[in-house]
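hi! just following up on the protien thing from before. the input was this:
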Amino acid sequence: MKYIVNGRQYHLAYYLTDGIYPNWATFIQSIRNPQDPKASLFAANQEAVRKDVERAFGVLQARFAIVKTPDLMLSKVKIGNIMRACIILHNMIVEDEHDGYTQYDMASFARDESNRTSQVDSAYSTDIPSNLGNMMGNVMTIRNKVHDKKMHDRLKADLVEHIWGKFGTNQN
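and the predicted 3d structure came back as:
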């Protein structure tokens, strides 16, 4: 996965977490005691989005047993397909329960692509290495990248700047 934040390209996906996770490149925690407006804005946005994701996942876990207790032997691709299917089914159920009636203007959810400040290349490789030696070498390389605290700090700083650049002028 490739994406750009604050003008810098990254290659590992990241997850919004709470403070119990280590400072790895793939975990982005909130800022415990923000001392300036940028840090405060980032903390508020990170916590709000993380809570939204937790609520959404909780709804899926309550509705679909496969999400609550997935089979750990399934491949990453199969788990992704199962999650997509559960999300689609959930959305179909919700739409059916509302009988097509919405109380909000759908146009307010439309995205203006010209205002996007970040890009994501979701084309990623699912190729399996042909031998164990290559696979172990790849695993160790990825492990080192994931555990890189400097990368974590740089990504977090870039995300703080990105959030400030996008929403900071609306403060007061």
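The chain has one domain: 2-163.
The longest strand covers residues 2-5.
cheers
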